[in-house]
Write a structure and sequence with these properties.
Shape: globular
Number of strands: 3
Strand order of the largest sheet: 1-3-2
Oligomer: single chain
Distance between the termini: 35 Å
Structural class: alpha+beta
Length: 67
């Protein structure tokens, strides 16, 4: 399995984003962070989490006008 398709748990996604697991769950439940529920647990693709960060960064850059 390539790193791009690596499946992350909520804890791993939170560590990658450097936020709490509560924040990751909130983002996932709202649909802002792509993921899938497997039973009662969420799973995320590493590439989706990184794309989420890139999207948030580019939006911030446009709003702030410092890019």
């Amino acid at each position: 399995m390539t790193e791009e398709h690596e499946v992350l748990t909520t804890d791993e996604a939170a560590a990658l984003l450097r936020v709490s697991t509560k924040t990751v769950l909130s983002l996932a439940n709202s649909g802002a962070l792509p993921g899938e529920k497997v039973g009662r647990a969420w799973r995320f693709l590493r590439s989706d989490v990184l794309s989420f960060v890139r999207g948030a960064d580019s939006k911030r850059g446009r709003k702030g006008g410092d890019g």
